Amino acid sequence: MKPVYSDVIQYRGSHYDFGYMQGERLRYSPILSNRKKQWASKRDRHFLINPDEVKEAIMTFASGIWDELRGLADALTMNREDAIREFGGYYLEYGKSGCSIFTASNYMIRNYDSHPLSYEGRYMIYQPTDQGYAIIGPSMQITGRIDGMNEKGLAIGYNFTHRKQSEDGFLCNMIGRMMLETCANLNEAISLLKKIPHRHSFSYVLLDKSGESYVVEASPREVAVRKSNVCTNHFHLLDEENRYRQEESRTREQSIRKQQQHTADPYQAFRVMNDSDKDIFSDKYDASAGTLHTAAYFPNQMKAWFVIGPDRKPVIFNFKKWLDGNKIHATRIKGELDYDSPFVNMQEI
């Protein structure tokens, strides 16, 4: 088992200052240099961008994030085009992944499945002072979020369906961030998902304080909404958008439904998702489908649970107390994975 970790980063302030703070930290982190190596072979093919188009899109849906990009660029002495390419959450290809989500009326539990070398190990807690909602959750590509919850009690996660027939648009992680940044409830999040341009095909799972849960199936061509409390890696409504092979995803979905019928409380439900003997947690890291983290969000309690790796007790974050001005004392979340590769925040690869 290899030890891995995520750093807990908390900040209150303007988006520009938030970006600048992150840029200063990234100067002393291997994350960006590792990303450069990983993306080198794809740069010419996938990284052609129109800076004005991306700026207009970000300004349309979440203008505060543009200020965050400016702060990152200034701290890293990076020109605008490079900053947009690295942090804009637009155009880039997304590596395939697994992922499973289960919701009840008062919580969401999410397994994030991918390759360890795709994981940047940053758990972010940010309260903006200029615009937008405070958010707790792990980051992807610095500005995006893998899953999370905002100060209004909107919790989100997303599951990969496929990359075929991609079009210009935002990646899942930036769409997740924009929902958390600007949407107070399910209806606002669904409305945003219907308006925003999608690069790839994903299911977005939403839960708010009402206790209702929806899955929004989104492709570059169409968006459909269904009420559900379980989601894996296939569409139910947009069937023509599905991958050719869906057996594993459908089997995992049925296993979650069956096992969660017998859970009496959130902790038991968390164990179904995180225990290595329950057939939901995956160790298929070579296939970019191994479980890296298990997260839980509680919209009414305003708490978040988080673990890295299997068979672990959750680290509990009291988001409500943090919003009231209290500091979270945890600085690092540690875990172990049955795989040799580190996260990209840990060392040069």
UniProtKB/TrEMBL annotation:
Stretches for region Disordered: 244-263
A GO term for molecular function: hydrolase activity
The UniProt record lists the keyword Hydrolase: yes
Any Pfam family hit: AAT
Amino acid composition bias (Basic and acidic residues), ranges on this chain: 244-256
Coiled-coil blocks: none
Alphabetical list of CDD domains matching this protein: Ntn_CGH_like
Domain of life: Bacteria
Segments forming domain Peptidase C45 hydrolase: 106-311
Record keywords: Hydrolase
InterPro entries to which the protein is assigned, alphabetical: C45_proenzyme-like, Ntn_hydrolases_N, Peptidase_C45, Peptidase_C45_hydrolase
Database matches in PANTHER family: BETA-ALANYL-DOPAMINE_CARCININE HYDROLASE, PEPTIDASE C45
NCBIfam families given in the database record: C45_proenzyme
UniProt name for this protein: Predicted choloylglycine hydrolase
Annotated organism of origin: Lentibacillus halodurans
